[in-house]
């Protein structure tokens, strides 16, 4: 992303006017995170207008529009970001000249032919500032690709610091082995499967720009895939694959489904290969959180009320917050989450904003989107917060030992 | 061609009227005055044409235009062109009609004589009622004059109408009832003009008058009006009182069919400047294909969807019916989605294509089909030996495959020729001890690595009973396959490596011995035979046997197996002692029980799947593999009969794709022999006719037609957790296993926790996370929204109502399905 111009409003007002130009796919994620509802955007787009009512002819003109964002449509797997907005009066530039106020237009962020556009924000938070700075810094990029597979199924994914995007899924039904079946048929099908996976990789990956290509699977499928990829590349003289063969990382995971990628990201054995990627850092933090929860040491909590209370007390060591909180449609929610991060950081804690577009963020979203690890154990953090008391069911353990056995039977048989 | 005309151009524009393609284009063509007039006349014309079919707005407008905004002639012309919806010939009046025609004709011949001297604009206009008879120049003069008058009248007051009527009165000098009618007509026309834009003097009273007139007119048929107009002009021209009889006669035939008018105008038709056909048919660019054009014309002659709607709406508001219809009306709660209207020109956005479609379903059959050669199930069952399906479990390298290879070899299911061949082959790659395992491990991967990857089933028979072996992989990466294997079996053989330290590594350090046993317990395995394998490596020491036995017993009891569910057999897979034929070595004196096959026979007698009750239960089949021949004409599904029986000729439905197929034949055993019946517990292949292979997946269920298996995306279950590293939270990603089905899923909601020992007892109503060794009721949903799993609840089917969940390569829990949510 390019930041062409930045005008900040008077101090403390939180207003800012940015002129930005998107450059690559990752910028879409940044934009998705910083452009919120009720922000205003000035952009140019060509509009088709009919010459007159009855005529079918139309002319397209390049118009400068200023719209207020109403809703957003983001499809990460297709790199498609579209905002819907309504035109508003313009006091900053000479936009909306021939366009009436109150008309609906869409703003399509196109990374192939980018125009610079101007973003007017009323709440220019440090979080947004950080995102813009990060997006403008190309050296911090960490694009990775991953293929997670098992027999007959492979997932071809792209990983960046915001998201894990499933680009393609290859699914072949491999015949089960039988004592009577022809084993050649089985090998044929398996060969086809690897071939399809390779083809899909070549189609979706740009090996020259990727930092790392993870091949992971249970068993030896990833190793076989690596061998096959090299073989196919040599056969097809695919230079971009052969030149980047050092970027391949053959890893082990337990399943051929997407969850396998997280396993690799947090596996210490591959840490040195994957260090510095935001994604793996977040996976680690999440794992740490779950570890505390498992130990039941009262240091890990989730839920809005609990976190708010802990933040007030200044006890939070690590705050996990989903980016859904950061770019919520509700201004109050946005303000609150910004405030929360500020509080945590002032108290010496860390805040990790986790993208909801990868699996860790998805998991966090299910936990209300807010979680934390405390500095000290507080067993009664949730006391007085819950409306419905956690009733301990009556202990009627003496109800007869023999009856217990019957119930067990019921379960197991 | 320019779009607007000066008044100077008016004189010759008649020749230049183009063919219009649509209404809008025509509207553009008109100038303001004409447009305004058209706006007034058009609704009336439309109303009159209500009874006719095939007309469209454009043709009506063009016709009005061509008739110089005279409604009457235009109507006649239109009515001639279009058919009446329900022609009602009134033959009674044919005599009168003939008379009228004759008279009208005679008058028409006279008209040109007088019409050369038009002075009063209104009269011109009236005369143009039969302008077809006048020449083109005359028409243009008429029009020019009329336009002038329009301009003039725009600035004058409503007195104009009075003036005009006076003029008319002057010319007619008659005071008949007919005259009064024309009076209203004249005043109406005058008023109409006043409503031109720019002249804002038009009062509301004028409007009302116009309306009244319009209604008045509309109640009459247009022929009537035509005759009136026509007769009126004739009246003017002849100034003859004798014409009254004519008028009266014309009035008398008011209700004659249109043909009367048509006949009158037939002559004048030829004087048209433009070709009638071209003008009034649709424009079709390519005239070379006559048939196509004809078709297009035919299409346009039908009432358009709009017309249908308009007519319906009109019909709906017929006064006498309105009350009824209002009474029938009811309020519906349908919410109108008031989305803001977006500007057009958004079409250039190339939105990415939608998500992949949901599970494809086919039409399922409801009527069962009869078997081809029905056989008596009861007598068939009597001839059957007890049958047992068993799975071989154990830690990796515990010798499972070798044990099974040995077993098959000893019972004669594998001939010594194959064993010798495998022996040779295995020696070549330096793994001679694997030759027995290769009986089951056939793929190149498995042989080269010496690891079983997938399950393999094999049938064999002893004198007492029949068996199906399911050989499961031991490696932890292939536990999913082992789960498939376990779910197919009723009894398990747990192979334990009794070698020094081998048992310990397989048992203590997260080895698969424990996990497999847990899975067996969770998936409803009733009995476990512990095959104490590789006893030859520890010289058949009894102490070793007892040590392992005691350690395992503690674990078995912990997870719920009682001593009656367990049997212990010392053996050696590689050398063959304790399997079937080969006797124990002389050094083994402490074990006197049956050997492995003997023990299996005992269990088979106890847990045989063959029973009389199979006839009562519905046929359910779990699919493990799907293949089809190259032409895809028939499909072979292999799997296990979970309950009931099936015979060739019967129809089954495969879920969740809901396709019904006829079972063509049933193939049994290792060498795919055709059989007449498959009963519960059999591993068979069913050859299906007309199945959609691509919609059948491993793990799908099939049932006899008439029995539905619901498929689900979300379900509620009672979950029992095992030992966990990380707690289970809402949203935790998991992998779900049910038979051969493997799907990523996650916990949707933790409902409440229950007592592990007594599942009906609620412990905590609110659970935030689920730790090790806990039981809770949870909602689970599949991650992949396009996939549905056919499921039974635990009450419906004890075996198929169980699922196992795993996370990061470890089995974290087992669940019983309580209810399907979606």
TrEMBL record, chain A:
SMART domains: eRF1_1 (SM01194). Keywords: Cell cycle, Cell division, Cytoplasm, Meiosis, Metal-binding, Mitosis. GO terms for biological process: cell division; meiotic cell cycle; nonfunctional rRNA decay; nuclear-transcribed mRNA catabolic process, no-go decay; nuclear-transcribed mRNA catabolic process, non-stop decay; ribosome disassembly; RNA surveillance; translation. PANTHER family: PELOTA (PTHR10853), PROTEIN PELOTA HOMOLOG (PTHR10853:SF0). NCBIfam families: pelota (TIGR00111). Its cofactor is a divalent metal cation. Component of the Dom34-Hbs1 complex, a complex that recognizes stalled ribosomes and triggers the No-Go Decay (NGD) pathway. In the Dom34-Hbs1 complex, dom34 recognizes ribosomes stalled at the 3' end of an mRNA and engages stalled ribosomes by destabilizing mRNA in the mRNA channel. Following ribosome-binding, the Dom34-Hbs1 complex promotes the disassembly of stalled ribosomes, followed by degradation of damaged mRNAs as part of the NGD pathway. Residues 379-413 are annotated as: Disordered. Belongs to the eukaryotic release factor 1 family. Pelota subfamily. One of its GO terms (cellular component) is cytoplasm. It is found in: Cytoplasm. This is Protein DOM34 homolog. Residues 1-137 form the eRF1/Pelota-like N-terminal domain. One of its GO terms (molecular function) is metal ion binding. Residues 380-413 have a biased composition (Acidic residues).
Automatic annotation (TrEMBL), chain B:
Residues 155-182 have a biased composition (Polar residues). It is found in: Cytoplasm. GO terms for molecular function: GTP binding; GTPase activity. Belongs to the TRAFAC class translation factor GTPase superfamily. Classic translation factor GTPase family. EF-Tu/EF-1A subfamily. Residues 339-354 have a biased composition (Acidic residues). Coiled coil: none annotated. SUPFAM superfamilies: EF-Tu/eEF-1alpha/eIF2-gamma C-terminal domain (SSF50465), P-loop containing nucleoside triphosphate hydrolases (SSF52540), Translation proteins (SSF50447). The keyword Methyltransferase does not apply. InterPro entries: G_TR_CS, GTP-eEF1A_C, HBS1-like_N, P-loop_NTPase, T_Tr_GTP-bd_dom, TRAFAC_GTPase_members, Transl_B-barrel_sf, Transl_elong_EF1A/Init_IF2_C. The lineage of its organism: Eukaryota, Fungi, Dikarya, Ascomycota, Saccharomycotina. Its main location: cytoplasm. Residues 385-609 form the Tr-type G domain. Component of the Dom34-Hbs1 complex, also named Pelota-HBS1L complex, composed of dom34 and hbs1. It comes from the Eukaryota. Residues 153-182, 330-368 are annotated as: Disordered. Keywords: Cytoplasm, GTP-binding, Hydrolase, Nucleotide-binding, Protein biosynthesis, Translation regulation. GO terms for cellular component: cytoplasm; Dom34-Hbs1 complex. It catalyses: GTP + H2O = GDP + phosphate + H(+). GO terms for biological process: regulation of translation; translation. This is Elongation factor 1 alpha-like protein. It comes from Kluyveromyces dobzhanskii CBS 2104.
